[in-house]
Amino acid sequence: MASVTENELKSMTQEERVKALGMTSEQLTGRSMFMEFDPGETERFEYPWAPKVDFNKRTELDSENMTSTEVNNEIRKLMNEGYGTIVLKNPRGKHSLAVGILSKLNLIIEGSTGYFGVGLIDGPNVRINGRVGWSCGENMMSGTVLIEKNAGSTFGAAIRGGDLVCKGSVGSRTGIDMKGGTIIVGGDTGALSGFMMQRGRMIVCGNAGKNLGDSMYDGTIYVGGSIKSCGVDAVEAELTQVDKDWLKRKLNLYGLLPTKGVDHFTKVVAGKMLWNYDNLEPTEKKLIL
Amino acid sequence: MAGTQYRGSELKNVDQFLDDADGLDSEREKEIGQHIGYRYDVNLVPDYKRLTPFLKKYMEIMGWDDLNWLEDIHMGYEEAKPAVFDRNINGWVRVPDSIDLPDNQQDRDMIARELLLKFQMSDRHPLVALRKAYMKF
User: Fold this and answer.
1) A-interface mutation test, from B66, B68, B88, B127, most A Cβ less than 10 A away
2) Distance between CA A76 and CA A82 in Å, rounded?
3) How many domains does chain B have?
4) Which of A9, A45, A236, B104: CA 20 to 30 A from B82?
5) A161 vs B: CB within 8 A
6) Contact call for A286 and B68, based on CB within 8 A
7) Domains of chain A by residue range
8) What would the mean pLDDT of A136-158 be, rounded to a whole number?
9) How confident is the model at residue B1 (pLDDT cuts 50, 70, 90)?
10) Residue A278's closest CA among B111, B17, B28?
């Protein structure tokens, strides 16, 4: 609002100032969208805009001499042609590969990817035979991602759904700000893993670095090895039979169930001392559901 | 038992938040004077014996061995109405009165997953209009 001078703003009440700056003083209520489900909704299993792909229709894509953008565009083109299984060869550590895939797909990446690989995906099953750089699976919504080797820092940052699995070890800040889904690490994880975690589950079969679960609001972290230290408001909790059954089922899916079982896992949850919002608390929490 | 645990309090019966719209149960709720709708145990483990045929087919089509992202979906309650949180529109979508609710939370969660999925995939979902208006690729 360039037309309002600083002096004018100073002379206004708070409410006038808010309006003059184009903001609203209306308190968020956090109520429903006033929308109702339609019980007679047509049965459909994919988004209306999703390409019709067939898992049995397979092709290969050699990305040796392509840029990341060209690779991503080519993947979309192949999906529009109905290919449901794509083998990506020679990724050569390129950044931002296979991002924004919003429908089902079997994607096999033969090699290693760089930063922000397979981010913002909603549906595909991805297998990466090599390593991945920082922020792999960032903001993932659904699907499965399986990495055979190690991963960099901020693995699964802000993930909201799906299974993100690294069979090797990962860097620091794994699952930072995660809001749902499951992150599984076959090896060790670095410092500040689960930082500001809000929902979802993380399984670390190996050791966890210092400040595990620092400032976590909710969610659960399971650690099979040692924990260097827990962060602020992260506390150990009892490992129940429900936890054990869930751990066994989930780890079995990816061949990561330890031979000695899961009884030795430590469960870490939020101590909830940080649950100290103002009276907008319900609204705030709904925003992260 | 899965389906009875709530954050900060124990669920007395499955209709607790339908019968009691205010739902001021925990100390925190009494303090702020508002029911916290998300408070159901979000880490509930789905009972796979209760999968609906629609959800089984969805898992098969997507090539998943379990419910994947739908494990995080549960039936919640908003102003004494059953509702499901849709992350794609960041709001609650209500379950119509014409749908009979089962007598346990696990089956209600399965219905919630099915309703949400059908809604998200439908042409009347707000994301369809948003996509038309703002789609970049």
Assistant:
1) B68
2) 10
3) 1
4) A45
5) yes
6) no
7) 54-149, 161-289
8) 98
9) very low
10) B28
Contacts of A181 in chain B (CB under 8 A): 69, 72
Whether residue A180 lies within 8 A of chain B, CB to CB, comes out as: yes
Question: pLDDT for B112-128, tens place per residue?
Answer: 999 999 999 999 898 88
Cβ–Cβ < 8 Å for A156, A138: yes
Min Cα distance B80 → chain A (Å) is 12
Tokens encoding B55: 């959800």
pLDDT in tens, A237-275: 889 888 899 999 999 999 999 999 999 999 998 887 776
Rounded to a whole number of angstroms, the distance from the CA of B19 to the nearest CA of chain A is: 18
Contact criterion met (CB below 8 Å) for B115 and B84? yes
The whole-angstrom distance between A8's CA and the closest CA on chain B is 36
Structure tokens at A115: 């930063």
Q: Does B7 have pLDDT greater than 70? A: no
Q: Which domain holds residue B102?
A: 5-134
What are the structure tokens assigned to A87, written together? 């083998």
Residue-wise pLDDT for B57-70, tens only, equals 999 999 999 999 99
CA pair distance A264, A253, nearest whole angstrom: 19
